[in-house]
Amino acid sequence: MRIVGIVSPGAMGSAVGAAYLAGGARVLTTLAGRSERTHSLAWQAGLELAPDLDAVVAEAELVLSIAPPDQALAIAVALAEAAARSGARPLVSDWNAVSPATARELAGTLEAAGLELVDGSISGGPPRAGYRTRVYLSGGRASELAEAAPPWLDLRVVGEEIGLASAVKMCTASVYKGYTALLAHALTTAHSHGVLAEVLDDLHDSFPRQIDGAARLLAVSTAKAGRYVGEMKEIAATQAGVGLTPALFDAMAEAYEHLAETPLAAESPESIPDAPELRDVLEQLGADAGERT
What we know:
Elements: E1 3-7, H1 11-22, E2 26-30, H2 36-45, E3 48-50, H3 53-59, E4 62-65, H4 72-86, E5 91-94, H5 100-111, E6 117-123, E7 133-138, H6 142-147, E8 153-159, H7 164-193, H8 196-206, H9 208-212, H10 214-223, H11 225-240, H12 247-259, H13 278-284
Parallel strand pairs: 1-2, 1-4, 2-3, 4-5, 5-6, 7-8
Antiparallel strand pairs: 6-7
């Protein structure tokens, strides 16, 4: 893909754009209505700025939608409208954390405008030199997209059915982000009761790496908590679709809603230090008592 459009250039979107730049593509985005932080991320990644979404759609051969899941449908509608105005028909790939049912809805919205969708889901952090981010793909043109993978991206085809790539994300994210919410509640409660040291010691026996990195994991996840709420709801819908109760991940959505209201949620992920103090993090997550042991 020689010309790639990114919607929108947040932390992940800008990094994916930088990966395509490293592979020799021309990468376009638009910052209309975006935050100062997003402006900075796009500038640091070296992305080419277009005046609006119509200009991105008109020039790009591939448009990637990389945004919080609750924005996925609105982006698909906007892309369909831009394609109708410009007459352009780029390949669209949605890499948002949505349910298989939502992915199929996105495909229908785009198909009505003559656009084909490749379903995608991201596993891991933003791509960069020395680190490859895994992206699962499904759909009729998934192999075409995978064959044009740039450096730093590991694109893996799941199948030709829209929704399969999203299903992978819904399953893996249920473990990764469900664990994080569970850990946040457990350690905040332990801190409040003054038994944090004992809880950490006990958990460290089974989960040494996770407990050693707990402070930064909780801090960074809380900085992203607002965007995780919609993801938990998509997971709940996915699990309900196979006959499981949605109650577990509806509750996880509530957990992230609470985290999103804490002081730490006002920070940007980039501002979190490499080794924050766990007690400081837990204080900001709402512990009402300090360590008493």
